[in-house]
Amino acid sequence: MEPTPEQSPHHAYPDHWEADVVLRDGGTARIRPITTDDAERLVSFYEQVSDESKYYRFFAPYPRLSARDVHRFTHHDYVDRVGLAVTIGGEFIATVRFDRINEQGRPASAPADEAEVAFLVQDAHQGRGVASALLEHIAAVARERGIRRFAAEVLPANNKMIKVFRDAGFTQQRSFEEGSVHLTLDLEPTAESLAVQRAREQRAEARSVQRLLAPGSVAVIGVGRAPGGVGRTVLRNLLGSGFTGRTYAVNTSFAADLGTVEGVPAHRSVGEIGEQVDLAVVAVPADRVPEAVADCGEHGVQGLVVLSAGYAERGAEGRERQRELVRQARSYGMRIIGPNAFGIINTSDAVRLNASLAPESPKAGRIGLFTQSGAIGIAVLSGLHRRGAGLSAFISAGNRADVSGNDFLQYWYEDQGTDVALLYLESLGNPRKFTRLARRTAAVKPVVVVKGARHSGTNPPGHAVPVSRIPDATVSALMRQAGVIRVDTVTEMVDVGLLLAGQPLPDGPRVAILGNSESLGLLTYDACLAEGLRPRPPRDLTTAASPQDFRHALAEALADRTCDAVIVTAIPWVGENGEAETGDGEVLAAALREAAATGPAKPVAVVHVEMGGLAQALAAATSTATPRPAAPAAAPEPQRISSPPSSGTPGAGAPRTGAPAPAAPGKGGSVTGHPGPAVGRMPAYPAAERAVRALGEVVKYAQWRRHAASPGKVPEFLDETIDEHGTAGLIETLLGPSPDRRGRPLTHDEARELLARYGVTVLPALPAPDPEAAVAAAAKLGYPVALKTTAPHLRHRADLGGVRLDLANENALRRSYEELTDLLGTPAELRPVVQAMAPRGVDTVVRASIDAAAGAVLSFGLAGAPSELLGDTAHRLVPATDRDAAELIRSIKAAPVLFGWRGSAPADTAALEELLLRVSRLVDDHPEVVSVALEPVVVATHGLTVLGASVRLAPPPARSDLGPRRLPSY
After folding, report:
1. Contact 500, 446 (CB under 8 A)
2. Helix (H) or strand (E) segment spanning residue 748
3. Strand runs (DSSP E) across 34-170, as ranges?
4. Using an 8 Å Cβ cutoff, are 758 and 727 in contact?
5. Does an H or E element contain 855, and which?
6. What's the first-to-final CA gap in the chain, in angstroms?
7. Ramachandran category for residue 300: left, alpha or beta (phi over 0 → left; psi -120 to 50 → alpha)
8. Do the bridges between strand 264-267 and strand 279-282 make them parallel or antiparallel, or are there none, so unpaired?
9. What is the rounded CA–CA span in Å between residue 476 and residue 526?
């Protein structure tokens, strides 16, 4: 919305303050600045506010606004006087205003840093979290304008408003003065205010997903008058799934006297239905979607599943059509799955929703599946169905212009009907938020991700989101840090998901192997070693082994305290006539289930070759089976979302018989906190490599879960040896009053000074533009010295001959200088420097950089070929803890070089960990430091030496994860 000429031209309308937010009940609203065009909206809004709310706002009866009031509340300079409104359907439902004041409480301008704030929320929308969202946004606006404190006067009886201020998490003071409560809020974000904000975000976004998955009524818009077509197909699937709510067919072309279609009421519009519609499935051509959305919005529909194509996947025109679709839907408070979606499924007995193009609903189960591709979704559904697995919910989001995988992570975090989350992603709209949500969810239940479009450098058609420039290997490392199980293929995702959904987590990597084929056992043994597992020698039961022999062997393996998991291998028995007997799969499955039911809770996977009926029998639920011995008592479950019932949660929400309930992070059954699942759901694999790969991923995840209980900390000694305030001043000076958005690299001396303030010492390097300067530099530093070229094409390239080491005297230095210039070029081209020799050790490289989408990333590797040629580099998100630093060093493949490989002296890894923590702290404290590269860092037996450093400064990129809650706008 543009400002009118009446508004001050040098305080232009701040459109970056506009935001869509999800409210506590899952609906959406828009927050925007109030303008002079809003007079009529303000008056209409005020007329709908109760007398009691007006009294609480003005401390006196105030039945109507005067013309002077309207002018004052709609004319702002957006600096000292600011007003924000919350709108739904274009109409105000709440307002907030601040006025800058001085110490005497009178109107003031900058540099006064306090403002008086007041809220007003329509009674019909109170209790939806409107005021809390407004406080977050008005506080961010105030900070942007240099205001550090809010003052508010609240009547003692206005408990709701007092609670809004009290629960915000800001540092505050309260006093009782002249019959009112005087509140002062420090607007600087705190750990508590950020935690409050994220908790509210989680509840709101989870609730918005729940409204989509558990509607009480569904209207399918675009149902054809004749059989066939997308709309008619969805309607049939909805009816075929046994949906428990009300269903309506909508088509503007229906005859006025048409009563039903497929046995459900037929209407020409949503408004004609005359009853509440919770979810609308839109299956009309793209040019008719706006009309359908308006019809839904004006009649209270809560969410949309848009199957229609013709949006961002069709180019620039389609992207703009997609943006307008999202704007229109959100203006009515609705969320969207799609467009170009395949649909959604909820198998809960309380819902039984199949609002998709899938002809059959999957079996009810404990796996949640989200995909950004309809074709991949169909493939995964088929794979899970063939192997007897069930789903709690399925979502194919298409272009995912609004609801995304992040929203479903928010939902699955506390959904008691889902034990495992599977996601196929082709783009990450908000990588920072994804890693944050994934880490929290993975601490409660496994998250398995396949990332498509890994190497294209662009987003797939239809995905109008920012493109991250960080390499895929870095993305994978960051997912691992967050506890995400990253796999390469959809088949692997199904393999891992089945093992996680059907078996408990292992306590370690020790694997017992048993079976009736020596060769298959050896293949499994080799695969375990390749995956980093610790297999015991395979136990060969011989080809004569009976199902009872398998049962006894499995029971012994499960009871063995030196075994953490078991892989059973099976081939068909050979009869007396020489023919394979493949029909005993059911008998073997029963024997294996019996052993598992009576043994300790350890994961069991089965590898089979042409065993008829084995896989199906193992996948069958056995609710009458004897439960395994109980593991330690589980911790209290996360708080559930209130009604309506969650996906996969029958009736009042009790877990299905034999199914596990989610445990709190780091606690619960087994050492990992993953409770034991239903007995008898053993995953079967047609190849040893697939079973072992799945088990290897589960072992690594279980280890992460154990570590997640104590994630580490930033050592206190850092606070005593860094100069955060002085560094901020130095950065401000180096950037200057009008910094270039592209940033600037620091000189060698500038970088040394900056790093020194964080306890990072860089060895001096003196320029040597001629031999005499080189000799003078060596005399200053003391022999022995090194002579290096620093030209970009030769930097860190000792293999090209640009470095001379251990020069013990002047003659050696002059001779080396002459050799360098004769071999490689003139001094002006080579830019030689002289540096004192450092103690010998292992050459490493430490880097930190900020990606606009993913955030700050800390990287480590060995210098030269290991990191540059082989890509042997490890990564962690900033800020890094002491555990992160230790794991970063040990996670590269060449890590043994640092720990005494081949009898060499171990390097001082403690000093290296400290260096990593200092660099992490620097870029975390000062986002203007957009990149740091320390290369090489020579790690000796005692201590380390930083020989080279490059630092780049730039105005900090926006941190969307630290600002007030808002939905993304692409």
Report:
1. yes
2. helix 748-756
3. 81-88, 91-101, 114-121, 149-154
4. yes
5. strand 855-862
6. 18
7. left
8. unpaired
9. 25
**Contact predicate 95/118, CB 8 Å:** no
* Side chain identity at residue 545, one-letter code: A
Residue type, 896: P
Of 282, 278, 303, give the one whose Cα is nearest residue 292: 282
Name the token pair of 531. 């995956």
Please say if the pLDDT value at position 585 is more than 90: no
d(CA 58, CA 696): 65
Q: Which DSSP letter does residue 107 get?
A: B
* Cβ pair 927, 957 in contact under 8 A: yes
Residue where the block lists tokens 């407004």 = 134
What SS3 class is residue 712?
A: coil
DSSP 34: -
Closest CA to 34 of 125, 120, 158, 163: 120
pLDDT of 538 over the 70 cut: yes
The structure tokens listed for 351 are: 């819902």
Residue 788 neighbours by CB under 8 Å, 6+ apart: 765, 802, 803, 804, 832, 833, 834, 835
Distances, alpha carbon 886 to alpha carbons 398, 713, 917, in Å: 40, 12, 10
pLDDT in tens, 625-644: 334 443 333 333 333 333 33
Distances (CA, A) of 887 to 706, 843, 920: 14, 18, 14
- Pick the residue with more confidence: 830 or 657? 830
Question: Among 308, 288, 301, which residue's Cα sits nearest to residue 331?
Answer: 301
For residue 966, which of 12, 16, 1 has the smallest C-alpha distance? 16
Phi, psi (5° rounding) for residue 952?
-125, 135
Q: How large is the greatest C-alpha to C-alpha distance in the chain, in angstroms?
A: 106
Q: How far is CA 694 from the centre of its chain?
A: 23
In Å, what is the CA distance from 94 to each residue of 77, 139, 489? Answer: 20, 16, 48
* pLDDT tens by residue, 748-770: 999 999 999 999 999 999 999 99
What pLDDT digit, counting tens, does each position of 195-210 carry? Answer: 999 999 999 999 999 9
Question: Cβ–Cβ contacts within 10 Å for residue 123, how many?
Answer: 11
Residue type, 94: A
Work out whether the CA dihedral 353, 355, 359, 361 comes out positive or negative: negative
Tell me the CA distances in angstroms from 651 to 352, 501, 624, 706, one per residue in order: 12, 22, 21, 34
User: What is the distance between the alpha carbons of residues 166 and 189, in angstroms, rounded to a whole number?
Assistant: 14
- Cα separation of 512 and 534, whole Å? 9
Cβ(212)–Cβ(344) under 8 Å? Answer: yes
Helices (H) and strands (E) in the chain, counts: 28, 41
Note the Cα 137 to chain centre separation in Å: 23
DSSP bridge partners of 946: 762, 937
CA 497 – CA 967 distance, rounded (Å): 30
In eight-state DSSP terms, residue 525 is H
User: Rounded CA gap, 658 and 969, in Å?
Assistant: 43
Long-range pairs for 907-913: beta carbons < 8 A, 24 or more residues apart: 907/841, 907/842, 907/939, 907/940, 907/941, 908/939, 908/940, 908/941, 908/942, 908/943, 908/944, 909/939, 911/939, 911/942, 911/943, 911/944, 912/844, 912/937, 912/939, 912/944, 913/882, 913/885, 913/886, 913/889
Q: pTM of the predicted model, to two decimals?
A: 0.84
What does the alpha-carbon distance between residue 206 and residue 210 come to, in Å, rounded to a whole number?
A: 6
Taking residues 641-658, what's their average pLDDT? Answer: 34
Strands of 342-471 (E only): list them.
343-346, 353-356, 364-371, 391-396, 420-425, 447-451
Q: How many CB atoms lie within 10 A of CB 8?
A: 12
